[in-house]
Every structure is written in C-alpha cells, then in structure tokens.
Design goal:
5 helices; rod-shaped; mainly alpha
Length: about 120
C-alpha cells in the first residue's frame, strides 16, 4: 500500500529552501557588515588621535579657548577670528576623521538593518 504525501508538501519544501537561502544571504551580510564596522572602527580610533594631535599642534585649541576667556573681544572681531580658525584647522586629518566617523555610522545603520531582517526571517 502506497502512502500519499500531503498536498502542500511540495510548497512547504520549496518555502523551507527559500527561507534557508534567505538566511544564508543574511548571515553573509551580517558577517560582512560586522567586518566593515570593525575595520572602520579600527581606522577611526587612530585618525581621531591624529586629529587631536594636529588640533593641538596647530594652535586651534588656543584659539577656541578664547571663546571662554575673551568673548567680548572675539565678538568684536568675529570675522578675523573665524578666518583664523579656518586657517589653523587641520586640512588633512579633519576630513579623514570625519569620513571614518561617517563610515562607522554607515556600517552601524547597515548592520542594524541586516540584523532586523535576520530576526524577521528567523522568527
């Protein structure tokens, strides 16, 4: 006597295969985005220290401290003060540190998206 499989067995098998394929893709995304976050974090930390060293070396910290000590003089000469800040700003390390910070934020957002998609399929 032959046993007949249920009518929806084929659909359940195909759905399970599709679900497993989606999970495999999402696991890869999670791994790659975690690696990207880790790498961008490792780049961001030394660039932040370099930015701080360049700010101290250029004298920008001294100019910024004038805001708390001589605010009236700074407000009287706000145009010259702004130009002085722009001239003493570190040109190379500032954009590098900001781009590394944006990379960290980008990978955090993408990792969160991939994790939420993973949780939807996992449940």
């Amino acid at each position: 006597m032959l046993i007949e499989p249920s009518a929806d067995l084929y659909d359940r098998i195909i759905n399970r295969i599709s679900r497993e394929q989606k999970l495999m893709i999402l696991k890869r995304r999670l791994i790659l985005r975690s690696a990207g976050l880790l790498l961008s974090s490792f780049v961001f930390i030394p660039l932040t220290f370099k930015l701080y060293a360049d700010i101290v070396q250029s004298g920008l910290m001294q100019f910024l401290s004038l805001l708390s000590t001589d605010l009236n003089i700074v407000m009287a000469n706000v145009g010259d003060y702004t130009l002085t800040l722009l001239e003493s700003a570190p040109i190379v390390s500032l954009p590098l540190a900001l781009s590394a910070m944006l990379a960290v934020i980008f990978y955090i957002a993408k990792l969160e998206d991939a994790y939420s998609d993973y949780k939807k399929i996992e449940i």
